[in-house]
């Protein structure tokens, strides 16, 4: 490094930890340490808590707890290079169990060995500030409190004696599984800050200027929650393709509007019970007589609790889209998971009713208060993947049967599709 005081150590734990990193990673970590130590005015010996918090943009109890874990509870206000190296080796390069255990301890912001509702609320508030209001740390509106509550509602707490509710390690892992954005954020706290890093990426919502944001069901926090289950390119920008309050509760209009999209879609429903939920469709909606889609699709809840339910692999019944079929075995409408007439989520082709049942496709529960639902508002957002439109324009058109999938599916019903090929 060309600096006599550049960090180096003969600490056995540091030597072992350094083996988890490449030479380039170690060089980058040393450069970062020297820079932050210089800002701390410590003669390149340590990083002060204030400089650490300012750089990584994590504040509040979560930041204090992270510093305590890094310094092994010395609480001397000095984060050394060894501290940072050893922590990152466990937190980022450890086994799955080691990482989960570290994150579990991290969320116990009071450090009392009990992960309580208070701890999780403090963790969520710190993440919310880091993602949504980095320039206004510490301020939370009533709306923010409501947002935090839907994430807390996904948590399971086990009563322990006369004390407060607490969360077991197993329940904590389940909570992280249904809240991938929260889990990604908790796993990225020592990554140099960047809006595109996992857990901090916020999809940009694009909609016509004459539409008020108050009309939209999908809020920025909801988009962040859903985006945590997507790839970086799919979580960059979403465009409003259909809104029932503007376009009317019309299946034909819905299909016409979403056909202009080039990629996957996010379907959001608010029912008359006030529950909000939906599904991510990895493939374009096309009229078919059977299930289609792939394992990237999933169901989600947004209110009164936030959860994501990914495919279990139990079956391939991912997406459903049928209309103008006369057979009782082919329900007309759009849906996700389950089986015919018993979907994980289904909206009839009239857009006036639907249902949601627990299903093994996504291991999801009934998404609303009751299984039979009446949609109040339906929104559909298209993911905008840059460069995809030009690539699609160059693709060959394919055979007649490939271009007219509707006819192909009808042939399948009578066993003629293979013969026609």
Structure report:
The protein is α+β, with helices and mostly antiparallel strands and 421 residues long. Helix content is 37%, strand content 15%. The chain is built from 17 helices and twelve strands. It starts with 11 loop residues before the first helix and ends with a helix. The model is unreliable at 1-6, 135-143 and 389-421 (pLDDT under 50).
Compressed to H and E, one letter per element, the order equals HHHHHHHHHHEHEHHEEEEEEEEEEHHHH
Average pLDDT score:
86
Unreliable sequence segments: 1-6, 135-143, 389-421
Give the amount of beta strand, in percent.
5-15%
Q: How would a textbook summarize the main sheet?
A: 7 strands, mixed
Percent helix, as a range, is 25-40%
Put simply, the count of helices is 17
Count up the domains: 3
In the sheet with the most strands, the strands line up as 1-2-12-3-4-5-6
Question: SSE layout and pairings?
Answer:
Elements: H1 12-18, H2 23-39, H3 49-56, H4 60-70, H5 81-93, H6 96-107, H7 117-132, H8 142-152, H9 169-178, H10 180-186, E1 204-206, H11 220-227, E2 237-243, H12 244-247, H13 251-258, E3 265-271, E4 276-281, E5 298-303, E6 307-309, E7 319-322, E8 333-339, E9 342-348, E10 354-355, E11 372-373, E12 375-383, H14 388-393, H15 400-403, H16 405-413, H17 417-420
Parallel strand pairs: 1-2
Antiparallel strand pairs: 2-12, 3-4, 3-12, 4-5, 5-6, 7-8, 8-9, 9-10, 10-11
Helix pairs in contact: 1-5, 4-7, 5-6, 7-8
Overview features:
elongated, single chain, 5-stranded antiparallel sheet, 17 helices, TLDc_dom, EF-hand-dom_pair, 12 strands, 7-stranded mixed sheet, Recoverin, domain 1, disordered C terminus, 421 residues
């Amino acid at each position: 490094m060309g600096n006599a005081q550049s960090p180096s150590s003969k600490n056995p734990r540091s030597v072992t930890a350094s083996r988890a990193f490449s030479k380039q990673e170690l060089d980058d970590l040393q450069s970062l340490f020297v820079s932050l130590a210089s800002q701390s005015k410590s003669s390149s010996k340590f990083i002060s808590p204030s400089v650490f918090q300012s750089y990584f943009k994590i504040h509040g109890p979560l930041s204090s707890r992270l510093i305590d874990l890094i310094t092994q509870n010395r609480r001397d206000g000095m984060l050394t290079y060894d501290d940072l190296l050893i922590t990152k080796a466990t937190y980022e390069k450890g086994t799955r169990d080691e990482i989960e255990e570290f994150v579990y301890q991290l969320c116990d912001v009071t450090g009392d060995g009990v992960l309580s509702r208070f701890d999780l609320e403090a963790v969520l508030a710190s993440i919310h500030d880091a993602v949504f209001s980095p320039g206004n740390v510490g301020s939370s509106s009533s709306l923010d409190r409501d947002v935090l509550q839907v994430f807390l509602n996904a948590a399971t707490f086990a009563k322990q004696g006369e004390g407060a509710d607490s969360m077991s390690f197993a329940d904590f892992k389940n909570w992280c599984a249904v809240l991938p954005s929260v889990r990604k954020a908790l796993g990225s706290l020592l990554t140099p800050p960047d809006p595109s890093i996992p857990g901090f990426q916020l999809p940009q919502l694009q909609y016509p200027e004459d539409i008020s944001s108050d009309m939209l069901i999908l809020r920025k926090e909801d988009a962040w929650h859903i985006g945590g289950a997507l790839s970086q390119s799919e979580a960059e920008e979403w465009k409003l393709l259909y809104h029932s309050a503007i376009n009317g509760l019309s299946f034909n209009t819905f299909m016409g509007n979403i056909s202009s999209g080039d990629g996957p879609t996010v379907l959001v429903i608010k029912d008359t019970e006030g529950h909000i939920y939906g599904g991510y469709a990895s493939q374009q909606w096309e009229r078919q007589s059977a299930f289609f889609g792939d394992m990237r699709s999933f169901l989600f809840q947004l209110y009164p609790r936030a959860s994501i339910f990914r495919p279990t692999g139990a079956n391939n019944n991912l997406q459903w889209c049928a209309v103008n079929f006369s057979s009782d075995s082919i329900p007309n409408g759009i849906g996700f998971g389950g089986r015919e007439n018993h979907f994980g989520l289904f909206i009839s082709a009239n857009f006036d009713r639907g249902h949601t049942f627990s299903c093994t496709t996504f291991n999801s529960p009934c998404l609303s208060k009751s299984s039979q639902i009446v949609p109040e508002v339906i929104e559909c957002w298209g993911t905008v993947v840059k460069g995809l439109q030009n690539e699609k324009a160059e693709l060959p058109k394919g055979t007649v049967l490939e271009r007219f999938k509707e006819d192909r599916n009808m042939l399948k019903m009578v066993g003629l599709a293979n013969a026609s090929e």
